[in-house]
Amino acid sequence: MAAVRAELTQISSSEIPNALRAEMGHLLIRVGLPHRAISLLSPAVRRGAELRQEASTDERLAYALALAKIGSSREATMILTLLPPSVPEGFLYRGYICQTQWNYVEAIPFIRKYLELSKREPYELAIARVNLLACLINAQELAAGEKLLAELREEAVRGGWHLIKRHLFELEAQLAMGRNDWGRAGQIVQDARAGRTAIESISDLLLAKWSAWIMAHQGQLDEGVRAIEEVRSAARTMLHWETIRECDRMRAELIRDPDLLARVYAGSPYESFRAKLKERCGGWA
Fold first, then answer.
1. 10 Å Cβ neighbour count for 191?
2. How far apart are CA 277 and CA 285, in angstroms?
3. Staple partner for 114: which of 92, 104, 193, 228, CB 3.0–4.6 Å?
4. What CA–CA distance (Å, rounded) separates 27 from 10?
5. Element holding 46 (H helix, E strand)
6. Integer angstrom CA distances of residue 255 from 152, 157, 220, 228
7. 100-149 pLDDT tens trace
8. Distances from the Cα of 20 to the Cαs of 17, 30, 80, 99, 194, in angstroms?
9. What is the C-alpha separation between 107 and 109, in angstroms, rounded?
10. Model-wide pTM > 0.85
């Protein structure tokens, strides 16, 4: 991935044909270069403070997604709401924005609308359904989540979708934690990690995070806190800011550190995240 990013940074925007701008924008986003995508697409999508009417739907979608990736959710949402309702991806990206703001309940109807309208390949639709599953779990709609999990697991096995299967392990563990079945959650994460302790991917990072959290809830508080600190260090190296914040939140809850919790609270611009902190820690913070 790093090699691909390095190659793409060497390509000037002027070298990219107009017909390939949207496709290149999506590629830049996928490899973690949303600012480059914005630089590429902005001249096509914007004329000063106004949107260019001649910008293609694909260009607007890629530009809005890039904005969302850097946290400019309000502008991204404005662009997406101006798209025709017949464009499925507009709903998918609005759902994604809700997810980044911890508004999981609001994300669910957007993702469902995308799935209703989209004619994409089964694998792409499955990815959207995995996102829907994550929202259902976080919204505490656990029965609906378990039903969707079973469907996705069967399809992932049948289709040989190994990345999706690995992600489903993490979500299944979250479902178990949602039901306070810490033993089951620990077994799922252990099976998913299959003896791997190195953190070499985002999937490894997230599984290690949950492994540490589960450990702390199974009578190994000190070991769990130390493991969370190790995950935080790995997340910092990988520039995965969401995991850094989650590790700080977990550590603050586990050791009941009101100062750290206050920093986590103040550092988030999202009201839904702040409300979750109040709900979880209101009894002691």
1. 11
2. 9
3. 92
4. 14
5. strand 46-47
6. 37, 40, 12, 12
7. 889 999 999 999 999 999 999 999 999 999 999 999 999 999 999 999 99
8. 5, 15, 20, 29, 41
9. 6
10. yes
